[in-house]
Amino acid sequence: HTFSILLNNRDEFLDRKSQPAAVHHFGKACHEEGDNVISGLDVEGGGTWLGINRHGRIAMLTNITEEARRRNTSRGNLVSDFLLSSTKQTMDQYVEELTKTAVTEEERATHQDYAGFNLMLISVASEDNASEPAKPGGTVRRPRMALVTNYGGGGVLSARWLDEQESALHGISNGVDHKTMHLWTKVKEGQDSLEASIKP
């Protein structure tokens, strides 16, 4: 049997109000039951840090450690937007649109002024995995994974697709993408511990 393990820890201020995981659609119009999302809810920002939908999409967000500053756009909405876009956009279309560079500084300040973040997007949905047809016996498709980041507050959004090795076992933290910077020790130790624990 094919299975996946997801470990997540929300690193947030204790006094920031949130609601526990539940089935919902972030208060937006929901035309089909399949549009619903399972996630916690950040009461202040209206988004979430981790969620899954019925189409087979998962998204999780980490905040890059940096000096606090109020921004015009909420990072938590990146997760909800991806999870709610399943019936409107493929994963490729979503990533392309999200990382499209703003034409003007005004547009960027309005739509892309996020505090530092790493956004992991995962999908086993058929519409997001056209190159890998369904397998016999109900075996789950290998997930497609993309990492979207701005490398720090106010930065330009960029994305890269994870290769097969990274997709098999991957970790992200409050630092920048380890493809450009040294992998944090806690991430390396976490990956090693997980790999050791699941070996037959």
From TrEMBL:
InterPro entries cross-referenced by the UniProt entry: TANGO2
One BP annotation, GO: protein secretion
Pfam family, one: TANGO2
Transmembrane segments: none
Superkingdom of origin organism: Eukaryota
GO CC term (a single one): Golgi apparatus
The name this protein goes by in its record: Uncharacterized protein
Organism this protein belongs to: Serendipita vermifera MAFF 305830
